[in-house]
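hi!! sorry for the late reply, been swamped w classes. u asked for the two structures so here they r. pasted raw, havent cleaned anything up. first the sequence of the first protein and right below it the C-alpha cells
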Amino acid sequence: MHKMIQWKWFPGAGRGQARSWWMESKGEFQRRRVSEMYMNSAYLNNSRVDFMDKSRPLIVCCCGTYHLFTRPKLPTYRPRGRLDFQLLYIASGKAHFYFGDGGEDMVVTAGHVVVYRPKEPQRYVYYGNDQTEVYWVHFTGSDVKNILRSYGIADNMCVIRTGTSLEYTKIFKQMIQEMQRCQPDYQELLALLLQQIFIAIHRQITRTDSGKSDYLDAEMELAIQYFNDNYHTEISIEGYASSRGMSVSWFIRNFKKYAGITPMQYIVSARMANAQVLLETTNCTVTEIASIVGYDNPLYFSRQFRKQKGVSPSDYRKSCLSL
C-alpha cells in the first residue's frame, strides 16, 4: 500500500516553498508507482465493454501496454473469452499462457505475438520477475477472419514468431495516442496501423517459411538503409561489403535474393526515383538535378534516366507540365 501524500504547510514557509516540497513528494510518489508497473491504454468511446461490430471490415476497439517492474504478477482470466479479437505482442521478458482444455503453461518469450479469437477462453499471467513488457490490441469487424488469413495468420495460429523490433512498439504507441486524441479520421488511421502490424507479421512468416535467417535479414536491411541515406554519393559496393566483413560476391548474391535486384540497381533506382520527384516539383535544371542525385556527368544521368523511365529528363518534365 502506498502512503497518502497530504499538503503540509510549514509555519513561516512561503507558498513557493510549500509547493516545492509537495512537488518533490509527489515526484517520489510517482516514482514509487512507476517502479511497480507502467501501463497506458485507450478505449473506443471510453468504454471498457467488449463488443462486436460489423459495420466496417476492421475496427480497433482498444489498445494499450503493460510493463511490469516490481509488481509480483498481473493475471488475466476470461473463461468465456471476449466478443472481439485480441493480439498481444511480447516486446520483452516473457509471459505465461494457458491454452486448451488442459490449461498447460506455455511460456511465450519476447518476439512473439499471441492471437485470441472471439469467445475463446483467455488465461495468461505476467510476472514482475520476468520484466514483462506487452503491447495489446482488441479489434472487430465484418471481414476480420479473411483479413487475418490474407496476411498468413491461419485460423489455428495462436502463437506466432515475429522477432523483436522497435517497429512494432512504434506502431502500438501511435495507435494508443491516436485513440486517446480522437482527431479527425482516427478510426480509419487505427485500422491502417493495425494492418501495418499484420503486414510486419506476414513478412516474418514468409521469411520463416523460406528459411531465411535473422542475421541475413538484418544485414540486408542495414545495407538498404545505408544505400537510401547515401545514394547521392559515390558508393563502393566492394568497400561496403568489406566494411561488413562480407565477400563482394556473397553480398551481391544475397542482396539480390532479399531485394530482387542487385545493390547497384537499387542505388540507381533510388537516384532515378528522387530525380523524378525533383523534375516534377522544382525548377532545377537537368544538370543541377543530376548533381543532386549523385551524377557529375549530366549526359550520363540523362542516359540512365531514359533507360529507367523510357523518356529523357526534359521530356518527362514537359509531360508533367502538360497534365
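now the second protein. again sequence first, C-alpha cells right under
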Amino acid sequence: MAEGPPDAERPPLRSAPAPAPTDAELIERSVLEPERFAVLFDRHAAGVHRYLGRRVGELADDLLSETFLIAFRRRASYRADHVDVRPWLLGIATNLVHGHVRSERRRYRLLARTAAEPVSTGPISGDSDDRLTAHALRRPLADALAGLKVRDRDVLLLFAYGQLSYEEIAAALDIPVGTVRSRLNRARRQTRAALGTTTSPFEEIR
C-alpha cells in the first residue's frame, strides 16, 4: 500500500469560515463601529420597503430612509431579548406611517375607485406575498382597509404584509399578545363584513 506524502508535503488544513454575525451582534458592534450598521440595511431594506410601499405607495422611499436613520440613532438602546431586529424595524416603520395616515387612507380610496376585478373571498395561500398584494388592490377590500382604525390596520398589515407572528407584532408595537389577537380579530371581522362573506383574505396565511 502506498504511503501518503510526508507531513511537510501535505496541504495545510483550511479552517471553516467564521459564521456571519447575527443581526443583534451587528447592532451591538455598530455602537462602537457605526459602519457595521450598513449590513443591516442590506439585509432588511427590501422587506421594510415592500411593507411601506403597500401602505403608503410612493412615500415608501422617504420613510425607508427615515426608518433606518431612527434605528441607527436608537441602536444603543436595542434589546435583543425583547424583539428581533426585523419586527423592531417594522415597528419603527409603522410608527412613521402614523404621520401619513391621510396619505395611506387616500391611497386605499384611490385603489378602491380604480380596481375593477372581483375579490376572491377565500383565504390566501401559496405565494401569499403576491396574492395578498393583488387582493389589497381590489375593491371593496381597499375600502375596508381605509375604514379600519389605525391601530387595527397596523396589526392586520404587520401580520399580512410584514409576515410577523402575533408575538413579533406585540414586541414591535409594545402591546400585549392578547391585544394583538383582539385587534386582528376585529380587523378581520370588518374585512369580512365589507366583502359580505364569512371568510376574509386575511385569515391565517402561514
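hope this helps!! also noticed smth abt the second:
The chain has a mean pLDDT of 82.
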